[in-house]
Amino acid sequence: WINIVVDCTFGVGVTYILLQLSMRLIQSVIPEQADDFRTGEYRVNGITDAGKYVKQLAVWLVIVSTMKGFMVAFMAVGHSPLLGLAGIALAPFAASPNLKLLVAMIATPFCMNALHFW
Fold first, then answer.
1. What is the pLDDT of residues 25-50, one digit of tens each?
2. CA dihedral 74, 79, 80, 83 (to 10 degrees)
3. Residue 34 Cα distances to 39, 51, 76, angstroms
4. Backbone angles phi, psi at 93, to 5 degrees
5. What is the pLDDT of residues 78-102, one digit of tens each?
6. Which helix (H) or strand (E) covers residue 109, if one does?
7. DSSP 3-state assignment of 107?
8. How far is the C-alpha of 91 from the C-alpha of 111, rounded, in Å?
9. Inter-residue contact 3 to 112 (CB < 8 Å)
10. Count of alpha carbons within 13 angstroms of residue 54, beta-carbon side
């Protein structure tokens, strides 16, 4: 429960910041190739340019992996308050282990991912 909530809230912000920083870094280090790294722009005349796609994919994988590392560190450092928060959020469902499982494994990820993709 904690992982999905942290990823879909704090993690999205960290991902956005990392994306902005990486685009600025690319622009300053290799300005002649910066257009190849513009997020989502990998088509030329309606045809996917594999080179641009692979470059963008590589940057995105580094960004997401870095974000996941930050989230693991954040959860390790803040494990006590996060466990307390999870306990409070899931307390209304404590009487029914099945309902608690449904909320933790189905409802929360569904809602958080909907928020994330929105």
1. 999 999 999 999 998 888 888 899 99
2. 120
3. 10, 13, 36
4. -110, 10
5. 999 999 999 999 999 989 989 999 9
6. helix 108-117
7. helix
8. 18
9. no
10. 3
Could you tell me the sign of the dihedral formed by the alpha carbons of 67, 70, 72, 78, in that order? negative
CA atoms of 37 and 39, how far apart (whole Å): 6
Dihedral through CA 39, CA 44, CA 45, CA 46, nearest 10?
Answer: -60
- The torsion angles phi and psi of 44, rounded to 5 degrees, stand at -125, 115
Helix (H, G, I), strand (E, B) or coil at 42: coil
Burial of 12 (0-12, 13-18, 19+ CB in 10 A): middle
Whole-prediction pTM: 0.80
Cβ atoms < 10 Å from Cβ of 18: 19
Nearest to 16 by CA among 98, 99, 24: 24
What phi-psi label fits residue 40: left (phi over 0), alpha (psi between -120 and 50 degrees) or beta? left
Q: 3-class SS at 71?
A: helix
